[in-house]
Design brief:
The protein is an all-beta fold. The chain has strands at residues 14-20, 28-32, 41-45, 49-53, 60-65, 74-78, 87-92, 107-112, 122-126, 132-139, 145-151, 167-171, 182-186, 192-198, 207-212, 215-222, 225-228, 234-237, 243-249, 253-260, 266-271, 278-282, 288-294, 303-308, 318-324, 332-339, 344-350, 359-364, 369-375. This is VCBS repeat-containing protein.
Length: 381
């Protein structure tokens, strides 16, 4: 029987702070310690510049700009060598209508940090497919990481038909200026949009969930190679996903959250162990494009935060928080985090001020802004 958590659930309180009101696209965000001061910074893929904002004074620094002719699209940041500072990879040349010509569509670069990270970083060009869209660093061993790169389309693919999407996994060489080995770890999906790294069983390496046209594909790294999960290669099938994230209810019952379909209007939840159990939490978004899960309220169960970028039927854009009303997720309610001032392209979750409460970071293209929503829940502020 589901136990109500309404009595224990405090009223969500978030305080918005605008970091930048001149954002051009803000299409991708990442969080990590750039300067080694042990505080998480914010990194962003803006139209022609990859930038970072220093925790504390939130000053903006350009890492590299004008990397390609077309717009920037994604960024991944992770401390992969244990020195307390993130390594950074980026994707650019965003041209989703060109699925065949790699000179006109897609790019992947690793950025070599200077001694002073506020100065220009050195890009190293890696192999790429057309329509590179999202990327993540994924831990594959005690001291090893792969860079997973996800195109939107398969090469030559038109309207989701044709060749499958080549999901790429890069190995990090000892000399990052040298050749980067890579492999195609999956080519079964025909449009993909985002991915999630998740350790479902408390073990490393983590699972990789990829959301796209055919559903959510599940990959694992075992015995030195990536492979589809042999017991259950699909976490969800026959539902188109634009965004996919994972969370848990009190008692560690796992769930998958999604935005459906791609650039869709619905926020959905699936039981990880019983994916046929699908709940639609909202059908009112327009171009849903950002998603995250965390326990913002300290209830022991994760909540879901979702953002959309085009005006809905009430002519509003924004960010909402979806709160489970029991420890099994049988019922939910939603509250506004941002009511019509954030046309959300991407969001991240991090405890930026180390108060033990996760904060929300969001970027908007049509609203031209980057904002922190400081989690003040329970403080009375």
């Amino acid at each position: 029987m589901a136990t109500s958590i309404m009595a224990q659930s405090p009223t969500p309180q978030f305080e918005a702070q605008v970091l930048d009101d001149k954002v051009q696209i803000g299409y991708g965000l990442a969080i990590g310690d750039v300067d080694g001061d042990k505080n998480p910074d914010i990194l962003m893929a803006d139209k022609k510049a990859f930038v970072w904002y220093r925790n504390g004074d939130w000053k903006r620094f350009v890492m590299v700009e004008n990397l390609t002719e077309q717009d920037n699209v994604c960024i991944a940041a992770q401390d992969i060598d244990g020195d307390g500072k993130v390594e950074v990879a980026v994707g650019a040349q965003w041209n989703p209508g060109e699925t065949s010509d790699t000179a006109k569509s897609g790019s992947v670069h690793y950025l070599i940090r200077p001694s002073d990270p506020t100065q220009t970083w050195q890009p190293v060009k890696l192999h790429h497919e057309p329509t590179i869209h999202r990327m993540r660093w994924v831990k594959t061993g005690n001291k090893s990481f792969s860079l997973i790169v996800l195109p939107l389309h398969g090469k030559g693919n038109k309207d989701g038909q044709g060749e499958g999407v080549k999901v790429l996994a890069f190995e990090v060489p000892k000399n990052p200026k040298g050749p980067w080995k890579y492999q195609v770890i999956d080519q079964s999906m025909h449009m993909t949009h985002n991915l999630q790294v998740w350790d479902a069983n408390g073990n490393t390496p983590a699972q990789l969930l990829i959301g796209g046209k055919e559903g959510v594909k599940r990959l694992t790294f075992d015995k030195g190679k990536w492979m589809a999960n042999s017991a259950s290669p699909w976490a969800v099938q026959q539902q188109s996903f634009g965004e996919v994230r994972t969370g848990s209810f009190k008692g560690q019952k796992k769930f998958i959250a999604g935005i459906e379909p791609m650039h869709g209007n619905m926020v959905t939840v699936y039981s990880y162990d019983a994916p046929a159990n699908r709940q639609v939490l909202s059908e009112t978004m327009n171009q849903g494009h950002a998603l995250g899960c965390a326990d913002f309220l300290g209830t022991g169960s994760d909540q879901i935060v979702a953002g959309w970028r085009n005006p809905d039927k009430e002519n509003k854009v924004g960010v909402k928080l979806y709160i489970p009303q029991d420890n099994a997720g049988a019922s939910w309610k939603d509250v506004w985090i941002d009511d019509n001032t954030m046309a959300c392209e991407d969001l991240q979750i991090a405890d930026l001020n180390k108060d033990g409460k996760p904060d929300i970071i969001a970027a908007g293209r049509a609203s031209n802004n980057l904002k922190i929503y400081w989690n003040r829940t329970g403080t009375g502020k």
